[in-house]
Amino acid sequence: FSEVYKSHCELGKDMLVRSGVEEKVIQIVYQHHEYQDGSGFPNGITKSHIYPLAQVVGLADYIVSQSLITNKNIHESIIACIGNSKKVRLIYHKDIMSSLTKLVDS
After folding, report:
1. Using one digit for the tens of pLDDT, what is the confidence trace for 35-74?
2. Cβ(100)–Cβ(59) below 8 Å
3. pTM of the entire predicted model
4. Cβ(92)–Cβ(59) under 8 Å?
5. Percent residues over pLDDT 70 in the chain
6. Number of neighbours of residue 60 by Cβ within 10 angstroms
7. For residues 22 and 70, what is the distance between their CA atoms, to the nearest angstrom?
8. What angle do CA 30, 31, 35 make, to 5 degrees?
9. Residue 48 in contact with residue 19, Cβ under 8 Å?
10. What is the per-residue DSSP string for 54-93?
11. Using CA atoms, how far apart are residues 60 and 66, in angstroms rounded to an integer?
């Protein structure tokens, strides 16, 4: 990822802090690209250090971006995300992936 792209988490956080948004929302925005294995950004934090809802938003962001990149609809992108579970399970919490799988199966 480019440094400009990586900076959007910090920029979003700064805007929300100046706007007086509550801390939980700020952390969701700031950490939505952090991954379980520490390979994310902006801080490369791992597992329990990541705000839980940031992982949900991060997964949603991943699915939408994959949909745009591959020209698939959202449902197809969700199926592909689940099918790519080895990679995706390394970066997103297993409970979030399990919930996504149950949602698709229902």
Report:
1. 999 999 999 999 999 999 999 999 999 999 999 999 999 9
2. yes
3. 0.87
4. yes
5. 98
6. 15
7. 35
8. 155
9. no
10. HHHHHHHHHHHHHHHHHT--HHHHHHHHHHTHHHHHHHS-
11. 10
Lowest mean pLDDT among 12-26, 50-64, 88-102: 88-102
Residue 5: what residue type? Answer: Y
- Report the pLDDT averaged over residues 14-24: 98
Nearest to 44 by CA among 9, 17, 14: 9
Is 51 in contact with 61 (CB distance < 8 Å)?
no
At residue 43's C-alpha, the angle toward residues 40 and 48, to 5°, is 75
Q: How many angstroms separate the CA atoms of 1 and 101, rounded?
A: 28
Amino acid 55: pLDDT: 95
d(CA 98, CA 75) in angstroms, rounded, equals 16
Buried b (16+ CB within 10 A) or exposed e, 46-57: eeeebbeebbbe
